[in-house]
Design brief:
The complex is a heterodimer of chains A (310) and B (269). Chain A has 13 helices and two strands. Chain A is mostly helical. Chain A has a domain of 211 residues. Chain A is globular and about 60 Å long. In chain A, 51% of the residues are buried. Chain B has 269 residues and is an alpha/beta fold. Chain B contains nine helices and eleven strands. Chain B has a six-stranded mixed sheet with strand order 7-8-9-3-10-11, sandwiched between helices. In chain B, strands 1, 2, 4, 5 and 6 form a five-stranded antiparallel sheet that branches. In chain B, helix 7 crosses helix 9. The two termini of chain B are 32 Å apart. Classes of the chains: A mainly alpha (310), B alpha/beta (269).
């Protein structure tokens, strides 16, 4: 594997793991089959690209993108808990609606950021040019990897902390066994909405950073995102179950990152070996299938899907 | 304290078929009373508790994959406040319930201490920032559980499913009483315990409700518990209350007579 391909895969894996945290929260903490992320990932990207091109501060834009994902997730949650629409259907509804919303925002299927500033170029200017006085040149992908790694670690630690707070355990309980959570006076409906909203906020953040690194947004970029997220989450879960007999949240969130890396590198190696890009989704499906063949994982997803229909 | 007026509970299936589980139940319980529900299996004792603690609910039948709705009609008042319109989680602020299956109290994905921390905050505002399990709380839980003769020190972080049925019943009762409810509903919470532990649990239950003046509605199949601790006894059959023994009446009936009465009621159909 060439050094170029290696660092590109690293950037992709780190971007992926931000999104995978979103999938992790909805699928493994809330146990809600949330397909909204196929819509919120491009939503984050489209909002970012269109707002950056009109000259708004990229940091503010990133926050707006997270917020937009949060709102979309909230709508999915409300459709499920208040109007009793099955989880899968509710999320597909929002996902479908978001496709049009994305087109409205960008008014073009593809929108380019061009030479406008992104948070990465700002940080590149700040860290590399100002501090080191441009004495040494750092490859873009390496620099992106470092920044993204910092973001991923911060999100991981925040998530670990949150899951151990009073609301964190209430949320786990609400997702795992709503009946017993209700017996402990946990507002299950509210926490499920919050969980889906946080998950989609992270998906939108992933989309936003993706757009800022690739310098474009495409309304179709969300297609198949859920399967990418699931691949990473379930590879991670398979690893977790191999090393721990009991649930270990620190490792579970770490496994999401590892899963994302394993997945992206598997894809990168497959492409390196001369497979055409057309086979991309096929390879993804095969990887997910392999991860799902592990019995405990199969059990878990069955539970999630079944719950989605209630 | 607890007033039920004309409670009907209907289980509706998707086919339109429905079953009356409770029929026109009206009872009135005073504060601090220990009330027993007595009757054969399927007479609606647990359903009455469910009507009070949960109210309307719907769930999916695993066999047919169809939705089943439970509808509760009538008025349920606790301390003069109507609760039948309330969401079940709001009722949990002042009602505590131990169901037949103690695992219903706990989440499988949480450890023992996390489950207890969840129960500990039941009638308080939860926080987004505070850690749920602190050293102070951990010590408090250990002290509370070890009083019941369980060696728990090293098992606090165990998964809840690794405890035995009897241990779970003790833990479920402790979790239900870790903050003081207005109304406590117990459903055969001594069923899986051996005789010595069962007696210990009865005494603990009695001590708890006397200390905090908690009203208790207790379902059991053990006549000795009724005789020893009961103030008021309701006899139930096929969803209706057909007989009531008030505290005054109970004092006049000798214990052996009462046991005979209870046993004969279970047997006749």
């Amino acid at each position: 594997m060439s050094s170029y391909a290696f660092w590109t895969a690293c950037v992709q894996a780190l971007l992926g793991s931000i999104m995978c945290f979103g999938v992790f929260i909805s699928f493994r903490i809330i146990r809600f089959p949330d397909l909204t992320c196929d819509g919120t990932f491009p939503l984050g990207a489209c909002i970012t690209a269109s707002l950056i091109t009109i000259g708004i501060n990229p940091f503010l834009v990133t926050l707006i993108a997270i917020f937009s994902g949060f709102i979309s997730g909230w709508i999915t949650g409300i459709l499920n808990v208040k109007f009793k629409i099955p989880g899968i259907v509710a999320s597909i509804l929002v996902m479908t609606a978001l496709y049009s919303v994305n087109l409205l925002i960008t008014s073009n299927p593809v929108i380019s950021i061009g030479k406008n500033k992104t948070i990465f170029t700002i940080m590149y200017d700040f860290f590399i040019k100002k501090i080191s006085g441009s004495y040494f040149f750092v490859n873009n992908d390496i620099f992106y990897s470092i920044i993204l790694l910092a973001i991923v670690i911060i999100i991981k630690l925040l998530l670990d902390y949150f899951l151990h707070t009073e609301y964190g355990i209430a949320m786990q309980s609400a997702g795992d066994k709503p009946k017993s959570a209700i017996a402990q006076a946990v507002n299950v409906d509210f926490l499920i909405c919050v969980g889906i909203a946080i998950g989609n906020g992270l998906n939108a953040l992933g989309g936003s950073l993706y757009a800022q690194i690739q310098k474009f947004a495409d309304v179709n970029m969300g297609v198949g995102m859920i399967i990418v997220g699931l691949a990473s989450v379930y590879i991670g879960e398979a690893l977790e179950k191999k090393f721990y007999t009991e649930k270990n949240l620190f490792f579970a969130t770490l496994a999401v990152i590892i899963g994302s890396f394993l997945y992206k590198f598997a894809i990168a190696i497959a492409l390196e070996m001369g497979l055409s890009h057309d086979y991309f989704n096929l390879i993804t499906a095969i990887i997910v299938t392999i991860a799902l063949l592990i019995p405990s994982v199969k059990n878990d997803i069955h539970q999630v899907i079944k719950k989605g229909y209630s | 304290m607890l007033e039920l007026h004309d409670i009907n509970m209907v289980v509706k299936k998707h086919t339109g078929h429905y079953i009356n589980v409770l029929n026109n139940i009206s009872i009135n319980i005073k504060e601090g009373e220990c009330v027993f529900l007595w009757g054969p299996n399927g007479s609606g004792k647990s359903s009455l508790q469910e009507a009070i603690a949960v109210g309307n609910s719907s769930y999916i039948d695993d066999n047919t994959d169809s939705v089943i709705n439970k509808v509760v009609e009538g008025s349920i008042k606790i301390k003069g406040k109507e609760i039948n319109y309330m969401h079940p989680y709001q009722r949990s602020f002042f009602i505590s319930r131990v169901t037949q299956n103690p695992l219903d109290m706990f989440s499988n994905s949480l450890t023992l201490e996390e489950n207890f921390a969840l129960a500990y905050k039941r009638n308080q505002q939860r926080s987004f920032l505070k850690k749920a399990v602190t050293d102070r709380l951990r010590k408090y839980f250990v002290e509370k559980i070890e009083k019941q003769g369980m060696d728990i020190e090293n098992r606090l972080t165990d998964n809840i499913t690794s405890f035995s049925g009897g241990e779970l019943q003790i833990l479920a009762f402790l979790a239900a009483t870790i903050c003081i409810p207005d109304l406590l509903l117990l459903d055969e919470h001594t069923r899986d315990l051996d005789t010595a532990n069962s007696i210990k649990m009865e005494q603990l239950t009695n001590k708890f409700i006397k200390e905090h003046n908690v009203t208790l509605v207790w379902v059991t199949h053990n006549p000795n518990q009724v005789v020893q601790y009961g103030n008021r006894i309701f006899f139930m059959r096929s969803g209706s209350i057909i007989k009531e023994i008030t505290p005054d009446e109970k004092k006049t009936i000798p214990d052996s007579e009462l046991i005979k009465l209870l046993k004969s009621f279970q047997q006749e159909n």
